[in-house]
Each structure stands twice: as structure tokens, then as C-alpha cells.
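Quick one, T. Sequence first:
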Amino acid sequence: METTEKPLVVTSGSDAPAESETPARQPRGKGRRLRGAIAHKLGVAILSGEFAPGETLSSEIVFAESLDVSRSAYREAIQVLIAKGLVESRPKAGTRVLPRERWNLLDPDVLAWAFAGEPDPQLVRSLFELRLIIEPAAAGLAATNRDRGDLRLMKDALAAMRRHSLATDLGRAADRQFHDAILRATRNDALGVLSASIGAAVSWTTQFKQRLRALPRNPIPDHVLVYDAIVAANPDAARAAMHRLVELALEDTQSAMAG
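C-alpha cells:
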């Protein structure tokens, strides 16, 4: 299959000066922050569909010049994308966007790039289906295995959610901490590994569904029902409460996407 090369267009607030009007400028070097910024720009472009699966990115030299960065910084950013399954790079063949099924969609950075623009409805639906599979079961396990420390973390997160509301960064961080505390309270190492991915999904979908309007209802009481069931060591009630919580969050998000 033939592939096409397409550079990432970088715009600025004004037209670039002519070569004779300004001395040549050195590219902006390298560093962790710069590498992350380049990876973010390219990741958003891929997740938004600007670069489709199968497309070959422009050469290293062209991209480095268009982004005004060093070639080494660009190469480091490409390595980040390779690690997340978005692209592959081969000698002479260049860097190609991989098929969607190869993307690590549970990586917190990939989720951030997906929600930087208009997220794919199928991706949003997939995230909630994953949550409906994992989080109710995790709540049930947490009700059985939690200790006082876990309950304190959940209680503190709920208090912060009430204090700041989910319309703020602090409130959404507390929401993420609440779900993270439940996963860790399962005492299941495999579920603990998923905490970063589940937390990122919770945070980004919560932010997305209220970007154009306020939340249609206050979801904190639904979180309290989950907490109360875990405190009562009632796994059935905890599973049911968490299932309802995620279902309501999906309804709110679908409503936001419908406009």
C-alpha cells in the first residue's frame, strides 16, 4: 500500500520574516520539556486524524525545521510515540502511523491527546465500557479487602470533591483520587496497575462533559453511595452503586457530545 507524506503545519500569529530580514536562528535544542511538547503536538495530530493510520510522516529534517527544534529533540519525541504504539520508524522507510488497534489507548498521555480536541465517540464509549467491566468488580473487592487507611483516603477525596466541586481542577483531581483509592483497596496488583489509566479516563471524561455547560446534576452523592457500601463491607451494594455511578457518567458524557 502506498503511503503519503504530510508535514505537520505549524502556524504563528504573523507571517515569518524574509530570510534577508533576520539572521538564521538556531533550533531550540532539546530537553525533557521540549521533547514532551513535540510528542504532544504530534500525538494530538494523530489522535485527531490529521495523520491517518498508514501515513508516513515527513522526514526528520523537514519536521525538525517546521517545528523549529533540533533533530535530536524530534527523534526523542518520536521514540515517545513509538513506545505508546502510535508510530513505527524504519531506516529508509521513515516514520509511519500504525493502525489504531496498535495504539496504547489506556496510556494517560494518549488519553490526554485524544481529549485535547474532539474525542472519537467510539473511544469515549470504549472507555466507559471498560470502566463498567472493571470498576464495579473493583468496588466489590474493595468492600471486602479495604482497611482504615483506604477508607480515610476515600473520605478525604470525597471531602475535597465537595469543597472544590468537579468543575475545578482540584475537584477533578480528588475524583481521580477517589477512584484510585478504590482500585488500590482491592489488594489486587493487576487492578492497581490500571489505576493510572482508569484515573485518566475519569478525569478527562469529567472535564470533557462540562466544557460547554455545567454538569446536569451533582454526581458526588453517587460517589457517596459507593463509599457507604464499601464502609459497610457490602460487596453487592458496592458493585451496584459503582455500576450506577459509571452509567450516569456515560449518560452525561453522551449528552455533552450530542450538544
